[in-house]
Amino acid sequence: MRDDSLAATFIQAAWQVNRLLNAEFDKTKSEEGRVTVYMAVLHELRARHLSMAEIIRIAGIQKSTATRVVDRLVELQMVERYDEPEDRRAVHVKMTSTGKRRFDEMWERSIECVLPLFASLGTAERAEFARCLAQTVAASGANGEAHQADGKREAALSR
């Protein structure tokens, strides 16, 4: 069974959180300036090195935008580019110690920015919301990877 109101509520909540985070961090309005793009890339780089193709997929951006994002992060000394020895055409990106420190600071500020949204929820409601949200994220293709085909996505929502 399709639940348009649930989907609409989720989309509106995502937009609101996006606006909150962008208001907290952004100084520009360009796509590569959006904090959500930087945070998605940095969050993944915190755990592992990424190819440019992975950055494009994770952040859901075009190749030219990914290049500008990485250029900016290199300029801020948060990441470094390196060539893959086996394939010199393949460019990879890794986070620097400065990047890890600054990402951790941004992550903490992000959490502080969003926490007030849950102030009206009790402990049990928060736990249930976190469980449902984690399940939703997992169904979407974790870590921003490609979404399921429309039919599969709709089937998942109807469960």
What does this structure look like?
By secondary structure, the chain is mainly α. It is 64% helix and 11% strand. The chain contains seven helices and three strands, in the order ααβααββααα. Strand 2 and strand 3 form a beta hairpin. Helix 1 crosses helix 5 (97-114), helix 2 (35-47) crosses helix 5 (97-114) and helix 3 crosses helix 4 (63-75). It is globular. It starts with a helix and ends with a helix.
Task: Name some characteristics of this structure.
159 residues, mainly alpha, Arc Repressor Mutant, subunit A, 2 domains, 7 helices, 64% helix
List the SSEs and their pairings.
Layout (H helix, E strand, L loop, with lengths): L3 H22 L9 H13 L2 E2 H8 L3 H13 L3 E6 L2 E9 L1 H18 L8 H19 L8 H9 L1
Antiparallel strand pairs: 1-3, 2-3
| Subunit organisation of the chains | single chain
Q: Gyration radius, to the nearest Å?
A: 17 Å
Structural class: mainly alpha
Globular, elongated, flat, extended or rod-shaped: what is the shape? Answer: globular
Q: What's the CATH topology label of the largest domain?
A: Arc Repressor Mutant, subunit A
Largest sheet: 3 strands, antiparallel
Please give the count of helices.
7
Q: N- to C-terminal separation? A: 7 Å
Give the name of the CATH superfamily of the largest domain.
Winged helix-like DNA-binding domain superfamily/Winged helix DNA-binding domain
SSE string = HHEHHEEHHH
Number of strands: 3
**What is the name of the CATH class of the largest domain?**
Mainly Alpha
